Structures are given as C-alpha cells and as structure tokens.
User: Fold these one by one.
Assistant:
Number 1:
Amino acid sequence: MHEVSVMRNLLDIVEATADREGAEKINVIHLRIGEMAGINYESLKFAFEILSKGTRAEGGRLEYEKVDLRVTCAECSHEFSPEELVFRCPECGSGRIDIISGREMEVDYILLDEEGT
Amino acid sequence: MMHQINVGEDLRDRNREIAAENREMLRSHGVFSLNIMSAPGAGKTSLLVRSIPMLSEKYRIGVIEGDLQTTRDAERVGALGIDVYQIETGGVCHLDASMVHSALHQLDLDAIDLLLIENVGNLVCPAEFDLGVDARVMLLSITEGDDKPKKYPLMFSESSLLILNKIDLLEMVDFDLEKAKKEATDINSGIEMIELSCRTGEGIEAWTGWIENLISESRKG
Ligand SMILES: Nc1nc2c(ncn2[C@@H]2O[C@H](COP(=O)(O)OP(=O)(O)OP(=O)(O)O)[C@@H](O)[C@H]2O)c(=O)[nH]1
Ligand SMILES: [Mg+2]
Ligand SMILES: [Zn+2]
C-alpha cells in the first residue's frame, strides 16, 4: 500500500522531467532507495507495473540502488553505520544521532527517447 | 536516440518545503501542533476523545482527522463540540504536508491554541512525511507485539513521545514492556514514554501534562 503512494509520487517527478525534455518514451527509471525508507522493492516494482500502464513509462525498466544507513554523532561528529539499529555512538556513547543517508526515495536519473531523434 | 537525464529529486523534497510553510503559518498564529501516528487501531481516536475534555479546559482545540475514506473518527471527535477538519486521503496511506496545508487554510487558526492531527493508521509512511508540526507522537498498543521498534525504526526515531497504549490488557497478552522500551531507546535515546489506557484512564494526566509542558516551553520562546 505504502509502495503505491511512493510510486505515484516518483512517477510524478519522472513525468514532469519527461515533459520538460519533450520525451516520447521513458526507457529506464533509476532510483535510489534508502535502507531505512521502509520500502519493499518487490511491491514497488509491482506498483510500477500497474501505475505505468498507458503512460510513457509503460514497458520501461525500473532499476534501483540501495543506499546504506549512515549516521553521525551530534556530540563528537563520528560517522558510522548503526548495527542492529542501535543508534548510539560507538566512540563516545552519545545517543544524539543524526541520519545522513538511508532515507532516500529519489529519482536519480532517467533514460529517454526524445521527439524527432 | 536514448538520452540520460539526471534528476536527483527526492519525493520528500517538495514535502519538506510545504512543511516549512505550515510551520511558519502555525507559528505566526501561535498554534501549537502535534502529529499523532500509529498502526491502525492502536487508539489514536480514543486518546483524543478521552483527553480533549481535559485539554479544553486550558486550550482552544482544533483537530485534523486523516482517514483513508471514512468520516467515522471525525464524527467521534466532532461529537465533543470541537472544530474538526476531515482529510480523506482517498487511499493514500499517510498525510503529507500539502494535505495539511489545505486544511490549515480551512481552519480558523486565530481561534485555536492547540492543533491535534490524527494521521492515517500506518506504521511506515506517516514517519516519512513531516507535516510541519511542533512534535510527533506515536502510539504503540500492547496488543501489537513488542518487536515493533526494530521492525519499524523510523517511526520511533522521529517521535518525541511514545505512548504505550492499552496497558489495561497487559496481563492478557504476551508483551514484554521492558523489551519494547529498551528497543525504542536504542533507536531514539531521547524518546519519552507514557504507559496509558484509554479504557481505564491511567496515564491520561501524564499525557495532558506532557502537552502542557511543551506548550509552556514553546511560549517561553
Ligand atoms: N482495552 C483497550 N482498548 C482500547 C484502548 N484504547 C483503544 N481501545 C480500543 O481499540 C479500538 C481502536 O481504537 P481507535 O481509537 O479507533 O484506534 P485508532 O488508532 O484511532 O484507529 P484508526 O484510526 O482506524 O487507525 C477500539 O475498539 C477502542 O475501543 C485501551 O486503552 N484499552
Ligand atoms: Mg482513528
Ligand atoms: Zn560520539
């Protein structure tokens, strides 16, 4: 269910870009999805197949790369990947942690066929 | 000819911009706001219904109800004589900043001190979308299982307060309260917790007290 809303929003971004470029066909959509974004890739792919029907992205390929969870300590600036989802700095023990990557739901790039080319 | 276009746009970018507008709008009208999130049925509406009569003694309250497609919750809250704005998301499984933005234009913000937003029942997506509120609250009912923090970490990491609801059922279910609390603290060391029952009323004063504290802090600037 979640993945359907996410895919709808991602396709909005893709369609707007394709409009700007005057594209006839969207061949590839390359996503960056954070490990902690709570997205099941199989469900996302399924949502893509349903939602892209009748659009320029129909029959196109959905690709993705996973972005690892990285955080920094707000006390000592140490950067690390939390193990077992324990958000505590291994250097200084602080629990004040900021997420720097791992929540992405991003359209990285798309491959288009342009009009008249 | 195939042509690559770099996009680099995260679907949360636009939401973040609108959330900032909401935050500014609420601040300029002196409205304190909370985004209340949980899995379906954890007790969000019950918590509102139970605590609004007490909170109304101190504050003028407005409520935004996010619901997939019914007006049931809005009716339960509206029965208390409170100004309720209903957002039917039409199947979208969370509220986002733009939905709340339209609602803010419909509410009389000068007539409200405290805005309570009930998000759509869901443990995943509401956590992704900042609405521009002052604080986020999540409910975990003890009938859901004590392994939820590790399964849905983002919700726990984004919330300032965790309400452990339906505590009246503790003896009837297999829920390790200490384990759930420890896992929540592992993810968010600053998270505050209240054990509560909408049925017996246990913990309701801790909840209204928590809100009062935050409001007086925010009024100090
Ligand atoms: N035993 C017990 N039942 C509760 C408690 N709080 C809520 N319930 C019951 O749980 C059910 C769901 O409560 P709601 O308040 O509708 O939950 P909700 O989170 O608003 O649900 P959605 O809006 O559908 O996501 C109702 O049948 C409530 O009576 C509690 O503290 N103890
Ligand atoms: Mg409800
Ligand atoms: Zn540190």
Number 2:
Amino acid sequence: MGISIELEVNGASVSDEVEPRLLLAHFLRENAGLTGTKIGCDTSQCGSCTILLDGKAVKSCTVLAVQADGSAVTTIEGLANGDYHPVQQAFWDNHGLQCGFCTPGMIISCVDLLSTNPQPSEDEIRHGLEGNLCRCTGYHNIVRAVQDAAETMNG
Amino acid sequence: MYPSKFDYHRPSSVQEAVQILSANPDAKVLAGGHSLIPVMKLRLATPSALVDIGRIDALQGISRSNGSLRIGACVTYDEIANSSTVQEAAPLLAEAAGQIGDRQVRYRGTIGGNLSHADPASDLPAAALALGATLHVTGTGGSRSISATSFFVDLMMTALQADEILTEVEIPAAGAGTGSAYAKWEHPASGYALCGAAAVVTRNADGSCASARLCFNGVSSTAVDASAVGASLAGSDLSDGAIESAVNDNLSIPDATGDMFASAGYRQELAKVMGASALRTARDRA
Ligand SMILES: Cc1cc2nc3c(=O)[nH]c(=O)nc-3n(C[C@H](O)[C@H](O)[C@H](O)COP(=O)(O)OP(=O)(O)OC[C@H]3O[C@@H](n4cnc5c(N)ncnc54)[C@H](O)[C@@H]3O)c2cc1C
Ligand code: FES
Ligand code: FES
C-alpha cells in the first residue's frame, strides 16, 4: 500500500508515493537522490544519517518517511548557499574530517547545536555531539571546527 | 535494514486511534519510534499495522494547574528537559529526561513511549515512581488512571491493555522544602542506565527529614521503589552518615539483574553508591 507524502527538502517541495516502511534516510538517498546523507550503523547509534527535520537534528535511519510528511528537511546538500555554510567552512579550515563519512551528519549536528547554544564550551561541544561517532579524527579537530564556526557565526 | 511490511495509520484523535488498535489486535502504537523502529528493523517486532499518534493534538503540551503538572504522552525529552514549567514543578523529570541518549534521541523520544516501553534500563520509570505520577490512559472501554506504582508490571510489561493508549502523565507539583536528584551510571557503550537512582527528599522547617523516596532504573526487571530506605530516613537529620546507613541497612533489590554487562552483586553495590549520591544531592537541593 503506497502512501502519498509531501515534504519540503532543502527548500523544494517534493511529493512521492512511498511504502510505510521506507526509512527517511532511504527516501532521501534513493528517491530524492541526495546521497550526502550517509547510513553508517543503521542501528540508531552513529549519527551519520543525521538531518534537520523541522530544524531539529534527527537520525533519519530511525524515522519513517511517512512520519516526515508535511515537514521540512534539510540535508548536507541544503546547507551551502552559494558559499559554504560557516560550519562547513570551519570543518575545511580546521581539518575536522579525515575519511569524511561521518562529516555530513556531524556538520548537521553542529548546526543544530549552535542554533540552541551559539557559544558552547568545549565540554558542551563534546557532550552535544555524543550522538555522532567519528572513527578517524579523535574529535579534536571537530571540536576546533565548532569553536571556529561559533566565532564566525557570532560575527 | 528495513522493517517487514505494515499498514500505516495516522489518526487525528485518541478515539480514532483506539478504534484502530482494537480492530487490529497485533497493531502497535508509534510515538517517537526510537525503540519501536530499531526493533522493527531487526525484525524482533513485526506488527501488521502502526498507529502513529505523533500528530494527535490532545497528546501534546505541558501545563500546570491546581498543584499538578500535566504532560501529554507525545511530549519529547527535549521539550521536558528545557521546559521551565517542568524544571520548577518536577525538576527530577527534567533532569532525567536531559540525560537520555543523545541530542537526536531527545528530539524524537517521548515520555509516553518511554514509560509504555518499560525498558528496565530506561531513565523515566524511576522518576515517575519517585514523583508519585498518575498515568492517564484511554481505551475503547473509556479512560482510567493508573498510579506509576501499579503501571510497571514486569520486564517491558505495563498495565496497559492492547487497545489502550497512555495519554497523559500527571505529577503533583513539588512543594516547599523538597529537593530531588537523578544519579545515572551509564552503560559506556549504549548510554542506557546500568543503574539510575531517582531521589526526592522533603525537609521540615528544622531541617530534619519529613519524607524521602528512592527509586531505581536498570537494576531489576522493572523500576524499583526502595521504600524501606525512604521510610528509614523519615525523621532523621539527613546527615551523610544517616543517608549511608539508611542505604546500607535497608536497600535490597529483589531479583537484581545479572547479565553480560554487570553481575547482580555489582548492581546491588552500584545501587547503594548511586542511591546515596542521589539522596545527598536531593537533600542539598531541598
Ligand atoms: C541511540 C539511542 C539511545 C537511547 N538511550 C536511551 C537512554 O539513555 N535512556 C532511555 O531511557 N532511553 C534511551 N533510548 C530509548 C528512547 O528513550 C526511546 O525513545 C523510548 O524508549 C521510547 O519512546 P518513543 O517515543 O520513541 O516510543 P516508540 O519507540 O514509538 O514506542 C515504544 C513502545 O511503546 C509503545 N507506545 C509508545 N507510546 C505509547 C503510548 N502513548 N501509549 C501506549 N503505548 C505507547 C509503542 O507501541 C512501542 O511498543 C535510546 C534510544 C536510542 C535509539
Ligand atoms: S546510520 Fe543512522 S544512526 Fe547510524
Ligand atoms: S572522518 Fe572518518 S569517520 Fe569521521
């Protein structure tokens, strides 16, 4: 049984007919063609599938596409607006990535963190990113990138 | 990984939701989905239908009136942790909700889902017990109220009938002289509670203990009320020594859980340490 859904993805309206069991992560990657969102663990642990759902960071492997009906989704592809988003630029400048697999989810979580806490302490950054795992960097440069982005965004 | 096939319903009222549940005996309620979707992906649960209650207005919102705090079943941990109304009327619940999982989980998981799922390692059941919460539920036969004490029956089993939905959690607002604390010892990988101690302490004007309550997550098949500890503290001066002996002499966890993460004996000892710590913090806040 297909269900009609209509949502906004990176500012554009998208309608589709989906099976209820289709996960939002698969909808974004396969139906909407936005492969920036990664599926790492597929068990709700790693955060690499993190996207913004109505402005809040959520793990899209643990949300059904039908649950996002009527909502606005932002993926990594939707952050840059001509120039890189300040968080993307800060990850670039501070070598906040190595293999890059965790990076889309990590950046989305950082955008969410900075939207509720524009000047987080190092501890708040580490705590705020506990839902995103990185197997390469050891997190130090990610924390630096968030601090740098916070400075840029606070002007 | 994706779940096996199911029909999807998104009712707009509680009445409609319970009708669908009673017509589909193996249908399941979907709230935040942060326990249900993972188990469906692993095919440990294969319901034929999901009833998504996430958009029902009557299950949203936090309000306070006549000395009680009311929280809709679909209110998320993030909303609870950051609500000034909850922080004032039931700071223990805000503290416990703020320690669940990670940011992403806290945006999706709901108080109703957490209590209905009744995972022994989850963080809200002990707070609901310690705060004397009343759970309002509705089924095809009408509505009823269940005290938290009778709600948690066993491992992942509650007093809810198959066609019943938890609609609202009601908590008496904290009075003067009351302090509370949630002390959680996390499983290092999953972040769930290996032991979570929820304490509520009320002091008399002279500083002595008017009443105390200590409840636990994570240590047994269901949340535990260590009522003997609370009873033995009443009337005491709440000194560190009084707390320590109340816990050491009176805390026994019936059927403490022993598993690959921690033995039953370890959990018993951990409960003493975390229980005393939660009581001391609650006392300092009272
Ligand atoms: C990575 C991760 C980490 C986590 N860490 C923690 C943690 O540290 N502490 C913790 O406590 N939890 C943790 N959780 C679990 C999380 O809190 C879940 O959100 C919660 O257990 C279930 O709530 P839900 O709203 O997501 O419910 P769902 O998953 O939608 O439902 C859970 C169960 O309850 C039933 N149900 C839901 N709502 C109702 C209702 N109103 N009436 C009747 N039945 C209902 C459903 O049918 C289902 O059986 C974690 C989850 C993940 C994915
Ligand atoms: S892929 Fe979703 S949390 Fe890992
Ligand atoms: S950069 Fe490789 S996992 Fe984070």
Number 3:
Amino acid sequence: MSEPFLNIRGIRKTFGSFTAVRDVTMDIAQGEFMTFLGPSGSGKSTTLYILAGFQDPSGGDIFLDGRSLLATPSHRRNIGMVFQRYTLFPHLTVGENVAFPLRIRRRPQAEIAERVRAALKLVRLEGFEDRKPANMSGGQQQRVALARALVYNPPVLLMDEPLSALDKKLREEIQFEIRRIHQETGVTILYVTHDQEEALRLSDRIAVFSQGEIDQIGTGPELYAAPATRFVAEFIGDSNFIETSIVSTDGRQARLVLPGGAMIDGVPLHGAASPGGRAALLLRPERIDLQRGEGEGALAGEVYDVTFLGNNVHVLVGMNDVAPVSVRIPFGHAALAGLTPGERVSLRFNAADTHAFLEPPAA
Amino acid sequence: MLLDFDKLGALRGVLIGITVAVCLFLILPIVFIAALSFGSSQWLIFPPPSWTFRWYHDLFADPRWFYAALTSLKIAAIVTVLSVVIGFLTALGLNRGRFPGRDALRALFLTPMILPVVVLAVALYALFLKLGLAGTTFAFVVAHLLIALPFSIISIGNALEGFDKSIEDAAILCGASPWEARLRVTVPAISHGIFAAAVFSFLASWDEVVLAIFMASPTLQTLPVKIWTTLRQDLTPVIAAASTLLIAFTILLMILAALVRKGPKT
Ligand SMILES: Nc1ncnc2c1ncn2[C@@H]1O[C@H](COP(=O)(O)OP(=O)(O)O)[C@@H](O)[C@H]1O
Ligand SMILES: [Mg+2]
C-alpha cells in the first residue's frame, strides 16, 4: 500500500439527529477486495452510496488517486456498481444493457460490440445478448449487472449485497465467479454483505461495521484470531462469552477469575481495565479441549446435548450460574466415544487462544 | 374464496341477469344513436323505416363539421402532449420529493377531478374574460389541461410507484446524467403508464363539452360543441352521424389503450 489509491477519510453521515455513519476511515490498495461486513442498519450501504455519489457526506472526504471525489457528480465518477436489487433496464436486451455505458460514452460501434462480447464472456453469459432481463433468473441478472458495471473498466467496483436475494447454493456459485472475475480483471472491489462466510470467502480485507462505525479492519484470520471488540468476535466465527472478574492487569494482559473460582493468567485484554472490573472472556468452541469426568480443567460442567454436524460434533456443556458453553470437536475424536447427556466433563483452554473484553460496570 | 361463482346455485342466474341488464343499459344508447345515424327518417324515428348513408354524406359535405373535428383534434393533441410532460414532471416530484406538504400538494393536483366542471368552467371563463383571452386556443387548452392533468399524474404516478429507483441510479453510475437516465431508462420503463396518461388526457379533452361550451367562440368550436349548438337549432340525423363517429374514435382509442396496457405483463 505504498501508492495512495482509494482513501476514505473521516466520513460521517447524519440524517436529522441520527448518525448513520461516523468517522469511517480506511485506505484501499489498487486491486484489493475490501468487504464491509456488519448487521443490517450498521451504515454499510450508506458508506457505499457516499462513494457512489448518491449521498453527500456530512463530513470527511474521499480521495481516488489522490484527488477528492466529492465534487464530481455520480455520473462522472466512472465507478461501477452492482445493486442489491435487480437493476437491469427492463426495456433493453442483455446486450443493450451491457452496451449502455459505452453508448453513453459514445464509443464506436465496433468497439462496443467487441467489449460487450468480452464482458458477457467474463460472466459466462455468451449467447444471451438478445434475451430480455424478465426472461432470466436472478443469478443471471446479477451477472449481467456485473458485466454492465465492468464493461467500461471502472477503477473501482461497488457491490451492495448483490447476492442477498439468491438461494445459498447459487450464492456460493456466484461468489466463486466473483472471485475469479476479481482475479482476472484486477479491479478494486468494495463489497457489502452481512454474511460472514461470504466476507471470509471473498475478501482480502474486511471492515467490520457496527452502529455506523468501523470496529476493526483486517484479513479474515486477523479478525478471527485477534478481534478488537466483543462485537467483532461475535460476528466472525462462533463464540462463547463467559463473565469473569479482573484480578490484576498490566494493561495488555490480565489475570481473571472464572465462575467456579479457577484463575486464568495471561489473557489478552482489550480496553483499559482496572482490577475489580468485569470482563467477558471469549472462548472459541473449536479451541476448547473437552475432558471426560472431573478433570483439572478450568471449567467443569455437565453435557446437555450432543449434536452431529457432519465433519464435527457440537457438544453443549451446562454449568452453574453460566450460560451453556458450546464446544466443537472433530468427528471421530476419542473424547466423543459414547458421550451422552448428563455426563460430567471439564473444559481446558489456552489463555493465549482467548480474549477478554471489558464489560461496562454493572448497573 | 368467500363467494365462489360455481357454488352460488340459483343466485347465479340472478347475477348473470343483472350483469346483462347493466351492460345493456350502458350500451343501448350507443347502439341507438348508431342505428339512427344510418336510419332514413328525418325525424329520428326508431326503428328506422329504412337504411341510408345520407347523413354521413351531409356531414362530410359541410366543412363546418370538418373544422370542428380538426379543432377538437388539435386541442386534444396539444393537451395530450402538455398533460403527459407536466404530469410526468409532477408525478416525479411527488414520487421522489421529500418535503413537507407533499400529500396535500398531491391532493390539490387532483381537485379538478372532484370539482364540479361547471364551477371550473364559470371560474375560468371569468378569468379569461378579464385577461382578454376568452375564445382563444390558449384558453381552451388551459381549461382542458386542468381536467386532463389528474389522469396523467395518477397513471404516471402509479407507474413510477412500481419502478425501482435503483434502476435509474444504475444508469447514472453507468455514466448517464440524471436527466439522460430519466429519459433513456425511466421513461421507457414506465411507458405503459405514459401511454395510459396520453390516452386518458386525449379523451378527457376530445369528448369534453361543458368547459368547451364556455371556452368556444363562433370561430373556435370543438366537435362536442358543434353537436351541442346544432342540436339547439334543429334535430337532424347528421348529429347522430357525428356522434357515432365521435364514439367510434373514442372506442378505438380505448381498445388501443387496453392492448398496450396488456403488453408489458406478458
Ligand atoms: N435516507 C435515509 N434517511 C434516514 N435514515 C436513513 C436513510 N438511509 C439510511 N438511514 C439509516 O441509516 C442507518 C444505516 O443504514 P444503511 O447504511 O442502509 O445500513 P446497512 O446497509 O448497513 O444495512 C439505518 O439505521 C437506516 O435506517
Ligand atoms: Mg444495506
């Protein structure tokens, strides 16, 4: 990221007294696949629409190749976009839809024909030129929309939950296509989704949105291994949270007391905490070692439920005064043989695999 | 379904009877007029003693009828164009705009539909008289535009309601300026609504008589006004012939509109 390519600087958007987006800042490298991930209403689309020029930010700036985009109207930004809803022009054929941006740019006829063919080939819809959008499936329509958005070689492609209306199998199929197209064209993509799997599958980096703010930006593995907030930890991967209290801390790590009295030292701590405060301890279900009987584990409990999930098995362990903890164990693991609800088990984990997030003081 | 037609039993016969009666009630006057226009009787006797094209011959032989029809066509055409253009802009503003009083404004635009036409006619006549515009084509067009516009605003507004604005946004990101996007994408996509607006606007002006009587001058008469004034002088079957042509043209337009409106759904 030596060259400045796309820089979003302190973007803010308010609707009346409501702040939909606050202080969104990020640098995106040329050719990068950046995903905005977050729940519905967290400000992802609004940020994308500001980039597209459909909304003016209440503050902040956006630079593309070092120049501010804000003064340029949408139609001169030369940005591509695929929308959440189907937006093919209903009165035009597929070929005419894809040709539209080039017609607007008054390109010569021969060039248009050539580039439309190439764009449809890119999305694997050769031979569909004369179809009307109404006679195509949702997945095909979104692929045509993708061809239309790429046919004029925009430096940046925006995608706002383009697959949310499709069923799971088709979604995965097109995710794969999008990955391939990203690699083939090298276009910089800003992608919005609320689906963590989709984000992890597609992205170079992910920006996690929560209530109009970015909680963390990083690669999938970074977000999974070192979540900056409890929200990110909950959103990426599966998670258990256990209430603990802080015994001591050196600012970066903490010693905690678990429910049941066991101590755990060296837990990475997020947020400035003082001894006596409360912290939520993140335990990943697949990072817990389950032992049968009353072992020397940090937590002890009783098996509530055992669920077979294909390549792994989900064990729900209930404890006194704590929400049940889920544990994921690879199928065929020795600890599973004959495991039945009601059995006593103990849970062990490495402090380095866990994270503690500061809780607000109890009301 | 609560009322299943097949299970109504004896009521079915009653329903069919009522439907036929209503249809006859609506259609008979038209059939009657059409029959009279081909009848040989000078005194509009029904049933006609024999059949003739004489009244149509008389109609076409009299240039005043031809000019009245031409005036009707001209005014209806101007009203149609203005009504569709202004109706599109108004509907766009009402559909896209986010401003206080939008619903009140929408209601205001539709008042000509519920206001008694005579009231409107008297008011407009007084106004144009004061402005020295009474009896001009301009006044005529303005008067008919007032009653045609609500039809345009409603049918184009409904079409816009069903049109996803994201499609227009997509065209803008493709490089089209906002107005280019509206003209090249939105307008074709809602063409059925625009066509309906055009037909209704044309018809609103074409067979309108109350406003027309107030706006007309001896040299500026639409077909309905000509029928009205002729009727007051003498009762000739030529009127039946003119009326039949007027109705035929109207029915033709309605059929055309119905065909086009069916179009986009298939
Ligand atoms: N035009 C608008 N007027 C008022 N509030 C809006 C508008 N657009 C978006 N919002 C609000 O801003 C928040 C963020 O919306 P959005 O960016 O669409 O979220 P996301 O795409 O992450 O689901 C939501 O609470 C939404 O209700
Ligand atoms: Mg959204």
